[in-house]
């Protein structure tokens, strides 16, 4: 009892935690405030979702609980269901009247970002059945496409592209999804992006291209794909460095030879310091 009071739980929270369906029904019929939140900002709907109690979630939805309540981390019940792969509950929430599918947590992540990161294609498909904004950017400016590229979720990247996500949107640091794929050396995702007309020569805030990123990380196969797709191999970053400089600095001999074979300008120089 004291623990519940300290945690800020209502009787509805406690009944939900203990899966007492009949008690929950009595409390709702008796007029309990269904939207009370505990000290962590969690509602009874959060509890039911965390405990994977589909029938209780359904009862709470039918009772017109506020579906969009956020906990202290900015998570709605839908975020929670998505994060933990509770697909049946996610389905109920997605189709529930009044559920805002575009809400972001404290890091700016939407349910689509989370489903992408977790690799949950079923929930991604469910979200696409509704009118969601797939181009929302989180705190670093990443769309779900950036997340898919970074966490190497090729199937979801393909789905996002098919559904028309803005493929050339950049993060706050200027990186595109292709920069992230190049960092990881993910050739499958890089090809998906390139074949769907991503700007192959896009440069980030340091003026680095995907080829710079591939060179930095020694991703020879990825670099080969970029070169085969006619990337501008002589692009210089804000310091005047080309991918060749990067290979030389990081002793990437095989990749350096590949760039030479492809005809990179060997004589480009870095910026001359005025100091």
Automatic annotation (TrEMBL):
The keyword Transferase does not apply. Keywords: ANK repeat, Repeat. PROSITE patterns: ANK_REP_REGION, ANK_REPEAT. ANK repeats lie at residues 7-39, 40-72, 73-106, 107-139, 140-172, 173-205, 206-238, 239-271. The keyword Repeat applies. PANTHER family: ANK_REP_REGION DOMAIN-CONTAINING PROTEIN (PTHR24126:SF14), ANKYRIN REPEAT, PH AND SEC7 DOMAIN CONTAINING PROTEIN SECG-RELATED (PTHR24126). This is Uncharacterized protein. It comes from Mytilus coruscus.
